[in-house]
């Protein structure tokens, strides 16, 4: 096999968006009425009353799902999904493709560095890194298929035979009944809703604590929406509820704020990381030792290549890494890491009371933790083991880029009889 693949190049890079809702890597692009978008959830936009009733009102699903397929010179293909929609297709075609075509797809470290550094002047975080993440995951899928091995084996093999999950959703009692080892609920009300909102938060969490009993792990997702004073007050008000952890209380840019809330509540667990990007973003979070668990999203943080580096840094500080959602991409990572004790399952059913594929109908064989766990044998197929649904509602990125976006301006007289030194001819 080594001789067969001594020379290998990427020959094609294809991009797609997903038509409609409920399919692909944009978790929030779901039908109206789904708990993820249309239930009370505190967000950074909760300061404006008109944006409280639905998260789609302020555009949480504005980009939509996006997919990348990378084909090697021997015909092997790698495929991955994430979020980014048409802008992601544009970035791949106009910028990142140049680093891929002709390169060896097995050189994932080098390809990540080239794409990350070349986009540093406009990227470093957000959409550009999310796009790189999907490309990186497609490369890992391709590598696994080349060698006939699941990705978790390429990461060092399994560290356990069974992968346990906790469930994020609106009904912890249902999660417990389905066999999950813990549950996480979204906090309904934010600081701008005052003391009345704070009391409703306490009542909400008290109700769910009573529904699952005192010992079942109950966690709270605050979705970047709180302030330091409000967090300190809320955690104090809930100290008798035995909340297992408080997640993403502060804006990702207030890393110093975690020191303050940890100082106020040193025995309480605080977590964050799903909206942080790259190892550079996580470096300060790790060195501060104010967080008890890190939660990078492999479809956003830089892909599998960057997630490994973040995990290695965290392990040196004995900080567990429990990735945010991301379906099978996270499953392969977590089962290979001694520093990742379990995984999140993001409830994809509209009412959060049943277990459905994270990526909807995009794949025909996505493994799901129907009883709160997966066996390592469920992840045995090459690459990420995901088979694309032949009826997937994919729209080629080429259709979105036709005509191809224009290049920059060139002197009008270049290659022209008219040598007037003017600009305006777009090539």
Structure described in brief:
The protein has 427 residues and is an alpha/beta fold.
Folded structure, characterized:
Strands 4, 5, 6, 7, 8, 9, 10 and 11 form an eight-stranded mixed β-sheet that branches. Strand 6, helix 8 (228-237) and strand 7 form a beta-alpha-beta unit. The protein has 427 residues and is an alpha/beta fold. The chain has helices at 35-38, 85-100, 108-118, 127-147, 151-154, 172-178, 194-212, 228-237, 255-264, 278-288, 303-315, 327-335, 397-400; strands at residues 10-18, 65-72, 77-83, 162-168, 183-186, 218-221, 245-247, 270-272, 293-294, 343-346, 373-375, 394-396, 409-411, 423-426. The protein has 13 helices and 14 strands.
């Amino acid at each position: 096999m080594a001789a067969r693949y001594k020379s290998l190049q990427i020959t094609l890079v294809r991009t797609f968006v997903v038509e409609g809702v409920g399919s692909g890597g944009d978790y929030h692009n779901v039908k109206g009425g789904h708990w993820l978008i249309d239930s009370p959830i505190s967000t950074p936009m909760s300061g404006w009353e008109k944006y409280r009733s639905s998260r789609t009102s302020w555009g949480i699903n504005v980009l939509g799902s996006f997919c990348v397929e990378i084909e090697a010179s021997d015909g092997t293909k790698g495929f991955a999904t994430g979020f980014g929609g048409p802008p992601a297709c544009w970035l791949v075609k106009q910028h990142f493709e140049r680093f891929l075509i002709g390169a060896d797809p097995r050189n994932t470290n080098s390809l990540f560095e080239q794409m990350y550094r070349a986009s540093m002047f406009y990227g470093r975080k957000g959409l550009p890194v999310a796009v790189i993440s999907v490309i990186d995951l497609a490369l890992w899928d391709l590598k696994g298929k080349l060698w006939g091995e699941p990705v978790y084996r390429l990461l060092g093999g399994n560290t356990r035979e069974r992968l346990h999950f906790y469930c994020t959703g609106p009904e912890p009692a249902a999660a417990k009944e389905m066999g999950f080892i813990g549950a996480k609920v979204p906090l309904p009300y934010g600081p701008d809703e005052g003391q009345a909102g704070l009391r409703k938060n306490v009542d909400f969490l008290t109700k769910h604590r009573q529904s699952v009993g005192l010992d079942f792990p109950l966690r709270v997702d605050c979705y970047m929406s709180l302030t330091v004073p409000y967090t300190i007050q809320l955690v104090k008000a809930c100290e008798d509820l035995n909340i297992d952890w408080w997640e993403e209380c502060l804006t990702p840019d207030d890393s110093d704020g975690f020191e303050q809330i940890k100082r106020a509540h040193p025995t309480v667990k605080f977590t964050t990381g799903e909206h942080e990007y790259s190892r550079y973003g996580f470096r300060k979070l790790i060195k501060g030792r104010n967080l008890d668990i890190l939660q990078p999203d492999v479809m956003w943080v830089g892909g599998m290549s960057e997630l490994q580096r973040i995990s290695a840094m965290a392990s040196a500080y004995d900080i567990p890494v429990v990735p945010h959602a991301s379906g099978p991409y996270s499953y392969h990572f977590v089962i290979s890491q001694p520093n990742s004790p379990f995984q999140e399952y993001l409830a994809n059913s509209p009412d959060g009371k049943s277990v459905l594929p994270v990526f909807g109908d995009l794949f025909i064989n996505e493994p799901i933790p129907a009883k709160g766990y997966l066996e390592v044998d469920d992840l045995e197929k090459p690459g990420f083991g995901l088979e694309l649904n032949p009826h997937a509602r994919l729209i080629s990125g080429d259709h979105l880029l036709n005509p191809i976006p224009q290049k920059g301006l060139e002197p009008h007289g270049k290659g022209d009889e008219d040598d007037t030194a003017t600009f305006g001819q777009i090539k």
